[in-house]
Structure formats: structure tokens, C-alpha cells
Amino acid sequence: MGPEYPVKNLLVTGMPGCGKTTLVKGILPFLEPYHPAGFYTQEIREKGKRVGFSLVSTGGERAILAHVQCQSRFHVGKYGVDIGGFEKFLATIPFQGARLVVIDEIGKMESLSGEFRRIVDEILASPSFCLATIAARGTPWIEGIKKRDEIEVISLDRGNAGSLARAVVNRVRTILGPG
User: Which of 21, 82, 100, 121 is most exposed by smallest CB count within 10 Å?
Assistant: First the structure.
């Protein structure tokens, strides 16, 4: 690893729609030399309306996280959350031993999964560098993550998106060294 920082996990937060997922997707090509393990979410739209959320792993695997038509006992707003499908998707991602883990996002839907909470807790305590997005407001578990010693939380807004993207890539490169 590169030089030591007081924290090794970087969480990007901000209000819904501020560009957290856009930031992650935009910097992933620059992080490719580190072979990141993880995923990002994206909206599912039909006729211009958001009807759900899909998951895309850094390896290209895809799954549905939540959908208005999903029959589930787990709901966030109008979306049924497919916990079983999410956990099956998580099992395909080689988190263990990865130098760089990318998670978009640590949010209300994702945290309904006990397996996801376990994985996140393990990653944050591991030697891996974790870059994640996290809900601005969330469950007690989400709020607890933001207070952990090994975490730095950075707020994103439309005004700092470009400079923040460069800063995150530079931070990863400084901590992990050459890819």
C-alpha cells in the first residue's frame, strides 16, 4: 500500500439526485488498474418514469434490486425490494481480498439485507480500501457507519462534482500506489 492516511474508507454522501452514482460510474474507468470489486445501482425507467433499481457489478453482472412490480415483504416507498436476488448477486462479487471495493450505495434498500450489512462491516474493517456512496439520512446502522473511525465522509453537490471526482481518484492512487 501507499502512504498511510488516518482513514482508509471514503464515503460520498449527498441528497438524492446530487450525482453520487454518476460520480462512481465516471471514475470507475480510472480505477480499473486496481481491479475494483463491487457494484453500482442504476434506475430502471419505463415511459420516462422510474419504476425500479438495477445492480451492475464491476464484472458486468446484472440483477434487479427493487421494482414497483416486485412482490416482496420488503418495501422502500413504492418499491418492492428483492432481498434474495440481491444476496445472490452479492455472492457473485469477489469482495474478499480485493484491494479496492466500490459500493453504490449503502442505502435503505440495501441495508434491508443482513448479508449486505455483514459484508459492508467486514469490508470496512478489512485492509481493503472502500469507496462507497451512502445515504444522506438513513437507518441507525447507516448513521453508525458514518461515525466509524476508519471512515471519511465527503459531501457531494452539483457544485463540487468535478473536483471531487479528481480528488477521489487521486486519493485512491495515493493510498493504493501504482495499479
Answer: 121
Residue with the three cell numbers 493510498: 175
Only one residue has cell 439485507, namely 113
pTM: 0.92
Please give the order of strands across the beta sheet that includes 37-46.
75-76, 79-81, 62-67, 49-57, 37-46, 100-106, 129-135, 9-14, 151-155
In three state form, how does the secondary structure of 130-151 look? EEEEEECCCCHHHHHHHCCCCE
- Which pLDDT tens digit goes with each residue over 99-152? 999 999 999 999 999 999 999 999 999 999 999 999 999 899 999 999 998 899
Task: Give the C-alpha distances (Å, rounded to integers) separating 155 from 23, 68, 73, 135, 173.
Answer: 12, 29, 32, 11, 20
Listed residue (73, 136, 137, 81) closest to 110, CA to CA? 81
Cβ–Cβ under 8 Å, residues 120 and 103: yes
Q: At what angle do helices 161-176 and 20-31 cross, to 10 degrees?
A: 40
Q: What is the pLDDT of residue 34?
A: 96
Task: State phi, psi for 142 to the nearest 5 degrees.
Answer: -60, -45
- How far is Cα of residue 42 from the mean position of the Cα atoms in its chain? 11
